[in-house]
């Protein structure tokens, strides 16, 4: 048993639209699978929910937190003024080494703020980001940033790429992650000053950089890591969520339209169920914070018990990987890569190199 496995996952019992009932139910389900959990929130409220779940004998602790961050609270102010809020207490448990990581379905801005205020940024990281795991035809691509940083500079995108590449290898088990920058075309001339500068640096990085990824290729499985600014990333993410919802409703409508269609639906029920599970956000288990000095996850505000159960599993996997030091070292390369790319451009060499090639001495 590793040290991380010996520690519980801290779960914000008060975060999300269906808290505390669904959160506690999900934590109990995870505990039944052998994961240790510490539920954080007003103790009386949490224990009342636990009493409804037949949780006796399970590896579940309760840690009292007297305050709750509301969805409409200002993230930074909530962290400063509500010192005993459940999100902050979760992060403090991680900071003190009493939990291997944390997860919350609450105010996402407050979770990010809590990660930065309590855990702090990894050395050399300019801005932590949010990684969203995408459902794809093959694999589980990472999209970063998914909303934490609306305005970015090239160093942010380069650091996102380098950090996410380590996460994909160490946590998700991708042998050699294929990295790309989200843009409006495949050609190197496309994009903006931001994407072109980040791409020029990543061509020199010791990663498998594949150039630009168009929006239509986010879910094909052709890339394992796709980086962008938080504004674009969040719009892309919400667009995909909305599209999936509409397609699901159209399929249901079509299968109910005629008796023959209904019969076809019954025959295809198992296959359709498998497809639904593949694109179900509840199966993904939340979005990791990348660039903070510890393990923190944000999960959907509408999370139910299944989403929380899977989130606990994902947090534990990230903690077991012990990838924090390597993520910090990777991020530390960004400034030198940008300087090397700028020097190449100034010298007129325009040396493209093969994807993933290191700069020549």
TrEMBL record:
<comment type="similarity">
    <text>Belongs to the PlsX family.</text>
</comment>
<dbReference type="Pfam" id="PF02504">
    <property type="entry name" value="FA_synthesis"/>
</dbReference>
<comment type="subunit">
    <text>Homodimer. Probably interacts with PlsY.</text>
</comment>
<keyword id="KW-0594">Phospholipid biosynthesis</keyword>
<keyword id="KW-1208">Phospholipid metabolism</keyword>
<comment type="pathway">
    <text>Lipid metabolism; phospholipid metabolism.</text>
</comment>
<dbReference type="GO" id="GO:0043811">
    <property type="term" value="F:phosphate:acyl-[acyl carrier protein] acyltransferase activity"/>
</dbReference>
<keyword id="KW-0808">Transferase</keyword>
<dbReference type="GO" id="GO:0005737">
    <property type="term" value="C:cytoplasm"/>
</dbReference>
<dbReference type="GO" id="GO:0008654">
    <property type="term" value="P:phospholipid biosynthetic process"/>
</dbReference>
<keyword id="KW-0444">Lipid biosynthesis</keyword>
<dbReference type="InterPro" id="IPR012281">
    <property type="entry name" value="Phospholipid_synth_PlsX-like"/>
</dbReference>
<keyword id="KW-0963">Cytoplasm</keyword>
<dbReference type="InterPro" id="IPR003664">
    <property type="entry name" value="FA_synthesis"/>
</dbReference>
<keyword id="KW-0012">Acyltransferase</keyword>
<protein>
    <recommendedName>
        <fullName>Phosphate acyltransferase</fullName>
        <ecNumber>2.3.1.274</ecNumber>
    </recommendedName>
</protein>
<comment type="function">
    <text>Catalyzes the reversible formation of acyl-phosphate (acyl-PO(4)) from acyl-[acyl-carrier-protein] (acyl-ACP). This enzyme utilizes acyl-ACP as fatty acyl donor, but not acyl-CoA.</text>
</comment>
<dbReference type="GO" id="GO:0006633">
    <property type="term" value="P:fatty acid biosynthetic process"/>
</dbReference>
<keyword id="KW-0443">Lipid metabolism</keyword>
């Amino acid at each position: 048993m590793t040290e991380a496995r010996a520690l519980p996952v801290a779960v914000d019992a008060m975060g999300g639209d269906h808290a505390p009932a669904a959160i506690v139910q999900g934590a109990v389900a995870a505990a039944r699978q052998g994961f240790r959990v510490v539920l954080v929130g007003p103790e009386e409220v949490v224990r009342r929910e636990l009493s409804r779940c037949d949780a006796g004998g399970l590896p579940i602790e309760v840690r009292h937190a007297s305050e709750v961050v509301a969805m409409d609270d200002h993230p930074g102010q909530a962290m400063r003024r509500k010192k005993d809020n459940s999100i902050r207490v979760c992060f403090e448990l991680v900071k003190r080494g009493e939990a291997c990581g944390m997860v919350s379905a609450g105010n996402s801005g407050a979770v990010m703020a809590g990660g930065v205020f309590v855990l702090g940024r990894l050395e050399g990281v300019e801005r932590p980001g949010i990684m969203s795991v995408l459902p794809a035809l093959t694999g589980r691509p990472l999209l970063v940033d998914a909303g934490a940083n609306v305005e970015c500079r090239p160093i942010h995108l380069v650091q996102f790429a380098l950090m996410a590449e380590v996460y994909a290898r160490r946590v998700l088990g991708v042998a050699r992650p294929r990295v790309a920058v989200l843009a409006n075309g495949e050609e190197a001339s496309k994009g903006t000053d931001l994407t072109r500068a980040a791409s020029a640096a990543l061509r020199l990085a010791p990663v498998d950089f594949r150039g630009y990824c168009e929006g239509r290729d986010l879910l094909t499985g052709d890339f394992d890591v796709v980086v962008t600014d938080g504004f674009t990333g969040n719009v892309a993410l919400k667009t995909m969520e909305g599209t999936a919802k509409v397609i699901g409703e159209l399929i249901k409508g079509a299968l109910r339209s005629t008796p023959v269609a209904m019969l076809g639906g019954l025959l295809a029920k198992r296959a359709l169920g498998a497809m639904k599970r593949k694109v179900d956000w509840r199966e993904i288990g939340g979005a990791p914070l990348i660039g903070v000095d510890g393990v923190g996850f944000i999960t959907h505000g509408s999370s139910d018990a299944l989403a929380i159960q899977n989130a606990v599993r994902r947090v534990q996997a990230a903690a077991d990987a012990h990838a924090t030091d390597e993520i910090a070292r990777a991020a530390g390369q960004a400034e030198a890569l940008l300087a090397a790319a700028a020097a190449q451009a100034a010298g007129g060499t325009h040396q493209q190199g093969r994807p993933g090639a290191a700069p020549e001495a």
